[in-house]
Known about the structure:
Layout: H1 12-27, H2 30-53, H3 55-75, H4 81-101
Helix pairs in contact: 1-2, 3-4
Amino acid sequence: MSKSTSPDQMSNPQLFQQLALLGWLRSDSEKDKDILTALTGIQVAQELMNRLTGQREIDAFKRECIQRIADFVQKNPRASQDQINAEVKKHVLLFAARVQALDSVPLL
């Protein structure tokens, strides 16, 4: 849901949570408290799902795999189709091995 942000920038879910917190602090209403509770619960659930599934790491591995293949093609414009296929296969196998290794990483 949130895109990559710089270290000093809030993600969208963090911003929504802070807006809900501000609303609740200003009004002290039950409705605003319920909104803050719901948004915080969603963020916690999303983080737990990311940790349980390893999705954040899988996405990073995928981006790295694609980038390495793109780098190879860019640095080797005259590479044959067989060379490109071999490079793609190498990086896809590395990606698969890294994803499979996530099974042995502790969840939390």
